Amino acid sequence: MTNDVTQTAEKTATETPETTTGGRIYRPLSDIVETDEGVTLMLEMPGVAAEDVDVTFEKRVLTIRGKVQHTTPETLQLAYAEYGEGDFERSFTLSDDFDAEKINASVSHGVLTVTLPRAAEAQPKKIAVTAA
Amino acid sequence: MFYPTYARRSDPFALMRSMLRDVDRVTPTRTAQPVFPAVNVWKGDEAVAVTAELPGIDPSDIDISVKDNVLTIAGERKAPEVPEGARWHRNERSYGRFSRAVWLPYSASDDTVEARMTNGVLRIVVGRPDEDKPKKIEIKAA
Question: Which whole number is the average pLDDT over B13-25?
Fold first, then answer.
């Protein structure tokens, strides 16, 4: 009724230390799914190209960084803004049974998908019991 | 809150209405749904541009239409396909159909609208029609 304020996307800035350039760092929204083979993360990083994504896995911590390509149309002035543009950064602590060599990451339409397969020795083995 | 009792003696419901108005102000009548997608609007002498972040959406799933001076962006965010028996740890992204209308400062026809999508960011440029451009008036010598 009276409070018709347009509320937009849930894009939140991270609480990490400030950047030297004054730009903001956003926390990409994530979906995380686990299967028996491993864990898949899907992170929303609009405006980030595949070559600008940096995925590191060190001491159980998976860190994802994405550098945004600004979409500032030349000769035009910003008249109305609902979202901010900035780099993306987020890290997750995982269990230590992942195979760091087999981590796979791909970007499609601004969504980064990271697949972490479980280490072979960590996958449950079924032991056959033989009758004596 | 202060309700003057002397105001509008002839209207017995005046006090009730004024109290309801105050209630409306503090309690939103509907839960505020975040609008998707968020848009940034850019203006220039020759064109207007609308940019929106639409990560994870295939450009073929987005419908952009212009009628008079209303630009509509509609489409569907499809949920990712996960294998059977998968366990969700986090689900922060949202899915489903969306539609957003943006008022333009002038009427545009379809052939002056250009849309491009790069890395999940949609950019629509609407050209300004000639009839909307300001006309320069020459001053004649007297």
Answer: 71
Yes or no, beta carbons of B34 and A8 under 8 Å apart: yes
pLDDT tier at A1, thresholds 50, 70, 90: very low
Strand B62-67 with A12-13, pairing: unpaired
B39 at interface of A, judged by CB pairs closer than 8 A: yes
Place of tokens 């339409």: A109
Q: What is the pTM of this model?
A: 0.75
Residues in B closer than 8 angstroms to A33, CB to CB, are: 80, 82, 86-89
> What is the ipTM metric for this complex?
0.78
Q: Under a CB-based contact definition with an 8 Å cutoff, are residues A86 and A26 in contact?
A: yes
CB-count burial class (<10 Å; 0-12, 13-18, 19+) for A113: middle
Over the stretch A82-94, which tens digit does the pLDDT of each residue have?
A: 888 889 999 999 8
How far out from the chain centre does Cα A81 lie? 24
Q: How many CB atoms lie within 10 A of CB A126?
A: 5
Token readout for B30 is 């509907």
- Check CB contact of B46 with chain A, cutoff 8 Å: yes
Inform me whether the pLDDT recorded for B28 exceeds 60: no
Domains of chain B: residue spans and CATH: 39-80+94-129 (2.60.40.790)
Q: Which domains are seen in chain A, by residue range?
A: 21-120 (2.60.40.790)
Separation between Cα atoms, residue A79 and residue B103, nearest integer Å: 13
Q: What is the pLDDT of residues B44-75, one digit of tens each?
A: 888 889 999 999 999 999 999 988 889 999 99
Sheet holding B39-43, edge to edge: A77-81, B39-43, B47-53, B121-127, B113-118
For residue B123, give the chain A residue with the closest CA.
A71
